[in-house]
Task: inverse folding
């Protein structure tokens, strides 16, 4: 079961927007968007599945762990999530920094 908030979709483009841009640019952008949606969806689902598997380690009947162990695991996961977020934010920011106007 996939929650609605996990669905990545391509943005809608109106006919007037599509006709105002050249076809090769739209095709390339559309293909890149489709590839991103496909790859990011697959990778995100895989990571979520692995996190759920890691959560199975919380079973005290099968495993022995300390609060320090849990803190270390969660800190490592949070660090990697922060690194990924920074990559996306930096690339979006860098792209918007400079633009020539007509």
Result:
């Amino acid at each position: 079961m996939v929650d609605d908030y996990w669905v990545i979709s391509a943005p809608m483009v109106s006919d007037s927007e599509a006709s105002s841009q050249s076809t090769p640019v739209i095709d390339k952008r559309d293909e890149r968007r489709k590839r991103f949606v496909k790859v990011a969806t697959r990778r995100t689902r895989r990571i979520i599945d692995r996190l759920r598997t890691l959560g199975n380690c919380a079973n005290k009947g099968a495993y022995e762990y300390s609060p320090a162990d849990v803190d270390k695991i969660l800190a490592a996961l949070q660090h990697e999530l922060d690194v990924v977020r920074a990559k996306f934010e930096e690339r979006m920011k860098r792209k918007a920094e400079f633009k020539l106007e007509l």
